[in-house]
Structures are given as C-alpha cells and as structure tokens.
Write a structure and sequence with these properties.
The longest helix has 22 residues, at about 5-25. Mean pLDDT is about 75; it is low at about 25-30, about 230-275 and about 300-329. The strands form four sheets. Strands 5-4-6-7-3-8-11-14-15 form a nine-stranded mixed sheet, sandwiched between helices. Strands 1-2 form a two-stranded antiparallel sheet. It has a two-stranded antiparallel ribbon with strand order 9-10. About 40% of the residues are buried. It is of the alpha/beta class and about 325 residues long. Helix 1 packs parallel to helix 7 (about 155-170). It has a single domain, classed as P-loop containing nucleotide triphosphate hydrolases (Rossmann fold, 3-Layer(aba) Sandwich). The chain has helices at about 5-25, 40, 65-80, 95-100, 105-110, 125-140, 155-170, 255-265, 325-329, and strands at about 35, 50, 55-60, 85-90, 115-120, 145-150, 175, 195-200, 205, 215, 220-225, 235-240, 245-250, 285-290, 295.
Length: about 325
C-alpha cells in the first residue's frame, strides 16, 4: 500500500473511532470499581479488574479452550457475587459446536446459579458482537460473557465499541477469543486487559472408596496486556497506543509510596515471592474455590517461595501486533 493509502486508511479509522465515542456519550460520573481476584495480578491491575471495561481471555493452545472458558466463568461468578443482577452469556454458534455446550450441573458446581444466567446463541460472530454491545450499553446485566470463534470482524474499532459500551453501562465484559490460541501477544485491540490461559492439573479429593475425585478447577494464567492510563502505584509499565495503531509499553515512575509497600514484605522468606508489576512472561497457577467465590493464588498460598508459578513454552511478549502481521512472520 502506498504512503497515501496508509494515511487515508488511518484517517478513516480515526473518524470511525470519533463517531463511536460520540455515540457512546459522556461517561458516568461514578468511578470504575475494581474487583480483586488474584494477589499475583491485583497489584499489576491497580487493585483488580475494572467493572466497566473489556477484558479479553485467550487459550494458550488449542486444547486449552475449556480452561479459558472456566477462567472466564469464574470471573463472572466473582462479579455476580457483587451484584444482584444476572449474567448474560453470549456464544457464537460455531464456538459452541466446536467446544461443546455448557453443562448445567457443572456451572452450578463452578459457583454459578442457573437462575442468574441468561444464554444467547448467535448464528455468527457479527450478531454475537451486536448482542454483547447492546447488553453492555443497557447496563442491566451484572456481567456479560462472550465466546467468539470467528475473529475476522474483531478489529480495533470493534473492540473500541465494546469498551465504550462497557463504560457507558458500567458493566464488565469478559470476551473469550476461542480461536486465538497462540495469538494473544499478537492481537491489537482496545481491551483493558488480556489474559492467556492454559489448562493445569487439579488437586484430587480423596474418596471413601475407589478412585479419588477431581478437585477444584485450576489453570495457568498469564497477564499479556494491561492498559491502565491511571495505573496503580505498583505498575511499572502499561500498554499505550502509538500513531500507527499498534501499542507499546511505556514506563511509569514508581511513587514514593512503593517503599512503604516493600516494607510490608520484610518477613517474606524469599524475595522472589513479592507481587510483581505487569510481567507478560509470568504464568501464575490459580485454583478456583467456588464455595468462597475466590481464586487461590498458588504462588502466594503459603506466603513463601515462588515455586508454584508454572512455565509454558511461550515467547516473550513483544507488544500488540495485528493478526495479519503475525501470519506474515
């Protein structure tokens, strides 16, 4: 494409974003609240997940799709525990055909009351995105969960629409990018956070007779992206947009209050177990406790060493890139 064509394309994109922002209207005066969910991530997220933002979840490998869904549903249960409304679960039809439909008793065991779940099955991704956006803008659900397989229409502008809808309705959006396995580092979107999820072995529950029973849901979670313009005091870098539509990490000076936080950890035996800022190479082993609606962060389970973090064969994060650029590599 010629330089003139690129400039014209960027101009169209800027106009589209301006129209979306104008349509979204002025944001509410209520500041976003953050929901803590795991100690290893909360510090890097300014206290937890914002309740008026778009959060993306991608599987690390094709076999990790169920783990990504389990992680998203656990977060949905966390948000449901804080609000009296119901959750809306929107699924693209092909995604359900590929991974299977959700199982009612399993959802209940996961901590999700079936009476508080509303399911929508969309015939294609475009209608699924429309349903998610409309639900976010109306502000009625406690949380909106979307599972999308076809990502051809999921552009920077499309994700911006979902983000602005979440801010307008003050409703969190959890978007499962079911076919983006291995692509979490290469996506370009307006989401506030992006997690890459891998399956992990669950602990077993001793049975009175026969084989032991499967234990709580567990997964490996890696924070790929944290777009926090008003970052918390322990965030060292955030993902910021550049002029060409990509993003990069820009450093943020640590405030003087960091020293007082470090003092709280003087009694920890291993210095490596301190919570770290945004670190895309760090995978944390999480175990979901549905009875308490909380994640047990295995890294900090005993306030000791950091030997519970698990490793995956993943490349170091290199910022957001488009899927087309990733395919050309």
């Amino acid at each position: 494409m010629s330089p003139g064509g690129k400039a014209e394309g960027m101009a169209r994109l800027r106009r589209a974003i301006a129209e979306i922002e104008a349509e979204a209207g002025r944001p509410s005066e209520r500041p976003a609240r953050r929901l803590p969910f795991a100690r290893a991530f909360d510090a890097a997220l300014g206290g937890g997940l914002a309740d008026d933002a778009l959060h993306e979840i991608a599987p690390a490998r094709p076999a990790d799709g169920a783990a990504a869904i389990g992680f998203a549903l656990a977060l949905a249960a966390r948000f449901l525990s804080q609000r009296p409304a119901s959750a809306l679960v929107v699924g693209e039809g092909f995604a359900a055909d590929e991974s299977g439909a959700l199982y009612g008793p399993g959802l209940a065991a996961h901590g999700l009351a079936l009476s508080r779940l509303v399911f929508v099955r969309a015939p294609d991704a475009a209608l699924a995105f429309w349903a998610i956006e409309e639900a976010l803008k109306c502000g009625a659900p406690a949380v909106v969960v979307g599972e999308i397989w076809s990502l051809k229409g999921y552009s920077l502008a499309a994700s911006r629409r979902l983000l602005l809808a979440a801010r307008k309705g003050k409703v969190p959006a959890l978007l499962i990018l079911a076919s983006a396995y291995g692509q979490a580092e290469r996506l370009s979107s307006a989401a506030e956070t992006r997690f890459e999820i891998a399956a992990a072995s669950s602990a077993t529950i001793p049975a009175a007779a026969g084989l032991d029973l499967p234990g709580p849901f567990a997964c490996g979670a890696r924070l790929i992206k944290a777009r926090l313009p008003r970052a918390g005091p322990f965030v060292d870098a955030v993902d910021s947009p550049s002029k060409d539509g990509r993003s990069f990490e820009r450093p943020i000076a640590r405030p003087e209050g960091r020293a007082s936080f470090d003092a709280l950890w003087d009694g920890v035996r291993d210095q490596r177990s301190r919570p770290q800022a945004f670190d895309p190479g760090r995978v944390i082993h999480l175990e979901w406790r549905s009875q308490d609606m909380t994640f047990k962060d295995m890294t900090f389970g005993d306030m000791g060493v950091d030997d519970q973090a698990i490793s995956l064969p993943l490349a170091a994060a290199s910022g957001d890139r488009s899927r087309a650029a990733a395919r050309r590599r």
